[in-house]
Write a structure and sequence with these properties.
The protein is an alpha+beta fold and 181 residues long. The chain has seven helices and seven strands, in the order αββαβββαββαααα. The protein is globular, with a radius of gyration of 16 Å.
């Protein structure tokens, strides 16, 4: 798994991180979600065959739109792993990523350990509904960007994060997950 050097540097600095990148895992370039976590957590998730779920939040802020892609995976022995990926609707590569997701037949999730070595590769439940959802997210983000008087991605992301904690977002996007806790 060859990860871009800039992405590797970012991941190396974080104890836990989630990113979405274009990678070639052997069958051509595709959007892959990378999750950096501890090896024992990734192995516990793999042993439990824990499903990986995703969900979207697209919202306007005073600084412009935010696209947040949440990723969740849970198993006893590993706990509840939740992370987010922020996509910039003004960035052509992020819009391209959304476009790719709307066309992809499957989306894989690579779990990397502390040394950025692959620990597990899982697949998201990805079907026509999920592809349409990615397309709608792209369309909504572009629409909100056109309406924004000014746009500042970092400011929009910061305003969004101040308004919504990760736990609150997870409860909103994955309401059934909170029922068992």
């Amino acid at each position: 798994m060859h990860v871009d050097e800039e992405v590797r540097r970012f991941l190396a600095e974080q104890p836990f991180a989630v990113v979405a990148v274009n990678l070639d895992l052997g069958s051509g370039e595709e959007v892959v979600v990378l999750v950096k976590t501890r090896r024992d957590v990734a192995e516990a998730l793999r042993a439990a065959r824990a499903p990986v779920e995703t969900g979207w939040v697209v919202e306007a802020t005073a600084h412009g739109p935010v696209v947040c892609w949440l990723v969740r995976c849970e198993a006893s022995g590993a706990g509840d792993l939740v992370g987010e990926v922020y996509l910039d609707p003004a960035d052509p590569s992020d819009l391209g990523l959304l476009g790719s997701l709307a066309r992809q037949e499957r989306v894989r999730v690579g779990f990397l350990d502390e040394d950025l070595e692959p620990a597990w590769v899982a697949e998201l439940a990805w079907d026509e509904v999920r592809r349409l959802e990615a397309e709608q997210v792209r369309d909504r983000a572009e629409e909100l960007l056109e309406r924004a008087e000014a746009y500042d991605f970092e400011g929009a992301k910061e305003a969004f994060q101040e308004r919504h904690s990760l736990d609150a977002l997870a409860e909103r996007v994955f309401p059934e997950a909170g029922e068992g806790h």
